[in-house]
Amino acid sequence: QVQLVESGGGLVQAGDSLRLSCAASGRTSSSYVMGWFRQAPGREREFVVAISRNGGSTYYADSMKGRFTISRDNAKNTVYLQMNSLKPDDTAVYYCAASNSYQSTRYTSGSGYAYWGQGTQVTVSS
User: Can you give the pLDDT at residue 10?
Assistant: First the structure.
């Protein structure tokens, strides 16, 4: 098992940048594909991006390409989400998740992930 703890959220203004972190403990995070999801009030959970075990491949939701960047440091058991040019529509709780799957088609769906963090709130004011 792996435990995930997100950090780095907060209140920012439109156009600002923010970097979220997801620290993993327990089983080493390099055993998992790691993903970020978000959920805004009154909306369904939404896939943002995922990264392969060695960081060599990334999988972005089309709407997230260009402004969001995922990376990982397996030596630190940490995954990052760099978010630039933030918009009010980016306001949501952001969740980190870990997947056991080796099927890339599963990485864009929450059902493909076995472990989840508690989430970190990101609020973007206009």
Answer: 97
Cα angle value 50/51/55 (rounded, 5°): 170
DSSP labels, 66-123: TTEEEEEETTTTEEEEEE-S--GGG-EEEEEEEE----GGGTTSGGG-SEE---EEEE
Q: How far apart are CA 115 and CA 2, in angstroms?
A: 7
Residues 81 and 70 sit within 8 Å (Cβ to Cβ)? yes
Dig out the tokens for 14 from the structure: 């439109």
How far is the C-alpha of 85 from the C-alpha of 90, rounded, in Å?
10
Percent of the residues in the chain that have a pLDDT greater than 90, as a whole number: 87
Q: The tokens of 126 are what?
A: 């206009």
- pLDDT above 70 covers what percent of the chain? 100
End-to-end CA distance of the chain: 40
Instruction: Give the Cα-Cα-Cα angle 4, 74, 105 (nearest 5 degrees).
Output: 70
Residue type, 63: S
